[in-house]
Amino acid sequence: MALDEHSTKYGNLYSYKFYLRPTAHRLYGDRFSTIKKIKHHENVQKLLQILFLNGTCTTWEMAKIRNPNDVSTIRTKEKEFRRLIKGRTDRGKHSSGIMELGLVVNDGQKFNKGYSDTYRLSLPGILYCLDVLNLSKKEIDQMAAKYAIFVPKVFGKWEFLKSIIGDDVYKIQILARGLLLDNPELSLEKSPLYELMSYLNFKYRKFYEFISESDLSEQISYWFYTCILYQNQRKGKSGIPGVDKLHLIFKKDKEIANWYKSFFKESEVYFKDRTKILKGSGIF
User: 33 lies in a domain?
Assistant: First the structure.
């Protein structure tokens, strides 16, 4: 179901890196929360992990997953999950829920002895989970299957991509940590990684405060395929060059090849135009 834009809003990847991610770290914990043991952080992260692994759920279904054999505990946990998602107002003071920040979206309703709202992770919510939760590759694979329709060019092709580039699919965790998006050090790469990432930021620059789910899905997808170019330069690290990996994907998936080619051509035009401006500036 499409994102309910009236209840949950979030921005582009730049906004995720500089606003949503640090805010979520402050409110709900970072990768070190298991060491700090803050109860609220633990509760939120457990809820998010349920949605990460199971996809769309009602709060009752989340509670049953958390406590499958105790009805009284399920009722208590269901109320807790609802408060965590929607927030609460107590004595005139409102406490925000995780849906207000943009980690979770309302995904419609389900009828079972009455109507119940259903929830799933937003795309930034998926990135936050990839960032802070201690996830196995199997769990990330499970998430990709559950959220395939929301990022079809990546999660929808997950097993196909794994068959070609192997563990490189898990580079999505690099994005979740806000890396390789605007790093000047990328200019030292022998590939056009820096140029393509720079154009990616330019292309979606207008969507810092709000971006549609489909546009953010596209931005994440462009980032993912561009990041395949990234080669770990640690001593002794070797393997198939990133360009060759892309060629293997493009050879077997013409749809992805044509889609990414359009993005690549756009970036070429962008940098040609910028070069003309430099040359025509009259500075030298």
Answer: yes
pLDDT, tens only, 260-281? 999 999 999 999 999 999 889 8
**Same domain for 122 and 173?**
no
**Among 148, 141, 128, which Cα is nearest to 47's?**
128
Largest CA distance in the chain: 77
Handedness of CA 57, 219, 103, 129 (dihedral sign): positive
Distance (Å, whole) CA 61 – CA 113: 13
* Residue bearing tokens 């500075």: 283
d(CA 108, CA 245): 39
- What distance in Å separates the CA atoms of residue 241 and residue 139, rounded to the nearest whole number? 27
Residue 137 in any domain: the answer is no
Q: Is residue 64 part of a domain?
A: yes
Parent domain of 102: 13-126
If one counts the domains in the chain, the total is 2
Tokens of 218: 């596209």
C-alpha pair distances (Å), 218 with each of 63, 75, 223, 242, 263: 33, 39, 9, 20, 11
pTM: 0.91
User: Domain containing 19 — which CATH number?
Assistant: 1.10.10
Specify the pLDDT at position 6: 40
Structural domain includes residue 145: no
Q: What secondary structure letter does DSSP report for 119?
A: E
The residue type found at 131 is D
Q: Which element (helix H / strand E) includes 34? A: helix 33-36
